[in-house]
Amino acid sequence: QIPIFLQEIDHIVHLRDRVSPTTKIALNEAGVIPVNDNDPASPLLPPIYFNMVAGLFTVLVSELSCKGVELVGSSQYSGLTALPLWNIPDQQYPGVSMTNWTTGEGNPRYWALKLYLQYFGPGDKIVYSTPLSADTSKIYVQGRITNHGKKYVVIVVNMTNQQQIVGLKHVQEAHVSIVDESTHDQHWKEYTSDSETMTLGRFAVAVVHIIRTPDMTTQE
C-alpha cells in the first residue's frame, strides 16, 4: 500500500508545484490502524505489531521527506484498552498508541521516531533511497549526509516478519542503533561494529552512522 499512497502524494506535489509552488504540504493521521481497533471485543495486539508499524512509519516518513512534504503528523501519543482499575471504561484506539498504556513507557513506534529525529532533519542530503514498488525488496535503505554535523548515515528497515542479514560492504567502522523486539518499550540498543554484515530482527529499524571506510577519514 505504501507505493500506491506515494503515487498519490506525487500527484499532489505536482499540482502544488504547478499552481502554487510556495505552498507547504502537511500530512496528518499517517500510519496504520487495525481493523476494529476501537472494538472492546477485538483481540489484544501482539507486541510485534508495534515493531511492524514503527518500521512502516519510518519508511513512510523517509520517503515523504524525499518528496518535499514539510510536516507529517500521526495519531496518537497515548491510546489504550478499557482499564476498569483506573475507571476508564472505554477502549481508545490502542493500535495507534505510541506509549504502553499500563507503564507509560514509549513503545517501538515512539522509540523509532525518536531515533529518526535524533539523526535526521531539514537540509539533509539524500544520496540513495530504495525504490518502492509492489515487489519491493525485503530491506528498505536510505542513505543521507546529515545537515547537522555532516554525518554519513543510513536508515535500514527490515520490512519482513523474518530475521534478515544486511551487508555493510566496505564499512570498516560504524555506530549502529536498533529498535527491535528485544528493546520493545525501552531505549534502542547501540554498539560499534567493524563487521561487513548486520543482523536485523523482524521489523527492526536501524540507523547506521558510518564512521570509517577505506575511502574516507574517520568521522566523529
Describe the structure.
The protein contains 3 helices and 10 strands. The chain has helices spanning 2-19, 47-66, 108-119, and strands spanning 26-27, 71-72, 125-129, 139-145, 152-158, 164-167, 173-179, 189-193, 197-200, 205-212. A 6-stranded antiparallel β-sheet has the order 3-4-5-10-7-8, covered by helices on one side. Helix 2 (47-66) runs parallel beside helix 3 (108-119). The longest helix is centred in the N-terminal third of the chain and has 20 residues, at 47-66. The model has no long low-confidence stretch (mean pLDDT 90).
Give helix % range.
10-25%
Number of helices: 3
First-last Cα distance? 38 Å
Q: Write down how many β-strands occur, each being a DSSP E stretch of 2 or more residues.
A: 10
Strand coverage percent = 15-25%
Give the C-alpha Rg.
19 Å
Task: Find the structural class using helix and strand composition.
Answer: alpha+beta
Summed up:
The protein is α+β, with helices and mostly antiparallel strands and 220 residues long.
Q: Which structural traits does this protein have?
A:
10 strands, 3 helices, 6-stranded antiparallel sheet, 23% helix, 220 residues, alpha+beta
What is the fold's blueprint, element by element?
Layout: H1 2-19, E1 26-27, H2 47-66, E2 71-72, H3 108-119, E3 125-129, E4 139-145, E5 152-158, E6 164-167, E7 173-179, E8 189-193, E9 197-200, E10 205-212
Parallel strand pairs: 1-2
Antiparallel strand pairs: 3-4, 4-5, 5-10, 6-9, 7-8, 7-10
Helix pairs in contact: 2-3
